[in-house]
Amino acid sequence: MSVAGVPAARTALVTGAGRGIGRAIAVGLAERGVSVGLLARDAAALDEVAAECRATGAGAVTFPADVTDAEAVTAAVGAVAAELGTVDLLVNNAGAIEPVEEPFLGTDVDDTWRVVEVNLRGPLLVTHAVLPRMLAAGGGRVVNISSGMAYRATTAYTGYAISKGALARFTAQLAAQYGDAGVRAFDLAPGTVRTVMSTSMPVHAGYTGWTPPERAVELVAAIGAGTLDDLTGRFFRAGTDTPESLLALRDQILAHDARVLRLPTAGPDDPLG
């Protein structure tokens, strides 16, 4: 039982689970005894990850689907929930980034919009399908895989930055709207993990400071266990934050209403304050 009274997760749904960070999270949760639902477009890749998860002794079910397709998402969530019995933990991991590292005018708007669709519409659709099941069960936890780009302006990757910024607001909305019903929501930036997406980015050419994916797995597992429930609605960064460091900062974070998306003001006389 978690400190907030909502049971620790026994089941989880991970999107973008066929490779990279999603694969690491799915296998890491399975290693901790959590049965996992795996969602991605590549059926063969999902089957491989499911086999890894089952090898740990945990249950695993797959459903190939595009997270931007509403009908496919509804069918996927229904099938996964029917197999697992419920979805206690949702990890919205599926993501995309522009194919070129350019300012806004150097990119195709259709490419930019496709990134927004995957990174924002996807989590909206999946969460919309999962949330009623969580509420019926008395609560649950949602992890939105985020990025530092959600909180700071950059010279490229406009679609990625604005989609992650909007996702951060969605996290806060979930925490505010459904917290009393037992739902906890979190933004988690996994750090700079060596994946197909990150290594394709010119900015990472020659980069050596990769964040081990296990750091993100540790935080997701702690969220699923309820260890960090008091910090619902907040932003965590794997590779810098750990469950222990976040618990040590808990009182400061809450006292200053920190780790949230907000508009800084000019001081006590600022009318926006």
UniProtKB/TrEMBL annotation:
InterPro entries documented for this protein: NAD(P)-bd_dom_sf (IPR036291), Sc_DH/Rdtase_CS (IPR020904), SDR_fam (IPR002347)
Which Gene3D superfamilies did the record assign? NAD(P)-binding Rossmann-like Domain (3.40.50.720)
Q: Which UniProt keywords apply?
A: Oxidoreductase
Q: Can you provide one Gene Ontology molecular function annotated for this UniProt record?
A: oxidoreductase activity
Task: Tell me the Pfam families matching this sequence.
Answer: adh_short
Record carries keyword Plastid? no
Q: Indicate whether Oxidoreductase appears among the record's keywords.
A: yes
Which PANTHER family would you find in this protein's record?
DEHYDROGENASE/REDUCTASE SDR FAMILY MEMBER 7B (PTHR44196), DEHYDROGENASE_REDUCTASE SDR FAMILY MEMBER 7B (PTHR44196:SF1)
Q: Which family does it belong to?
A: Belongs to the short-chain dehydrogenases/reductases (SDR) family.
The protein, known as: Short chain dehydrogenase
**Which organism does this record belong to?**
Jiangella alkaliphila
